[in-house]
Amino acid sequence: MINSVVYVAVGLIVLTTVRIVFGCDFADKYVISNQRVTFHDAYVRCRQHGFDPVEILSEHDEKEIEAVLKNETNYGWQNAFWIFATNLGDKKNYYWLDSGKPLFYSKFAAGQPSNVEQENCLEIWKTSSEIFEWNDAPCDTKLRFICKYRQL
User: Fold this and answer.
1) Is the pTM of the predicted complex or chain greater than 0.85?
2) What is the spatial distance between Cα 55 and Cα 95, in angstroms, rounded to a whole number?
3) Is the pLDDT of residue 39 over 50?
4) Alpha-carbon distance 25 to 99, whole Å?
5) Do 128 and 119 contact (CB within 8 A), yes or no?
6) 3-state secondary structure the chain
7) CA within 20 to 30 Å of 67's CA: 31, 56, 95, 148, which one?
8) What is the third-level CATH fold of 3-150?
9) Residue 105 vs residues 45, 47, 143, 146: alpha-carbon distances, Å
10) Residues facing 10 on adjacent strands
11) Mean pLDDT of 66-92
12) 52-53 and 132-138 beta bridge pairing
């Protein structure tokens, strides 16, 4: 796995610092933001910089994201990353915001999603036992986020 640090800038103003990580098969690049923003702001930032908001559609996708995040040392949902699925339009089911696909694969923590306190957006986080799990969180929570760039 190869890591690079990139400063995304317009003119002399740095918009955000991101880490680009090449996936195991080098077909995808993942951009890990160091900036904490709301779910919707994270989606817009991925798009503004020409990336796709990350969607985890399979166990293979999950393993790639876990490999990308394996060196993260901060644990708990407060140090999670947005993974761009929401149930805002349908309180019972989650859909990927970018593709509109329903969740066929998921890796929710025990008791999740709980749908309490308007928790309508999904995050992935690392537990203290080094396991990655999903959780639903309020969309206005400020978290880091993951974008994806598919190489041509």
Assistant:
1) no
2) 10
3) yes
4) 22
5) no
6) CCEEEEEEEECCEEEEEEEEEECCCCCEEEEEECCCECHHHHHHHHHHCCCEECCCCCHHHHHHHHHHHCCCCCCCHHHCEEEEEECCCCCCCCEECCCCCECCCCCECCCCCCCCCCEEEEEEEECCCCCEEEEEEECCCCEEEEEEEECC
7) 95
8) Mannose-Binding Protein A; Chain A (3.10.100)
9) 25, 24, 22, 18
10) 13
11) 90
12) unpaired
Residue type at position 99: S
Q: What sign for the dihedral angle of Cα 53, 56, 57, 60?
A: positive
The total number of residues written for the chain in this structure? 152
Half-sphere exposure in the Cβ direction for 27 (13 Å, CA)? 4
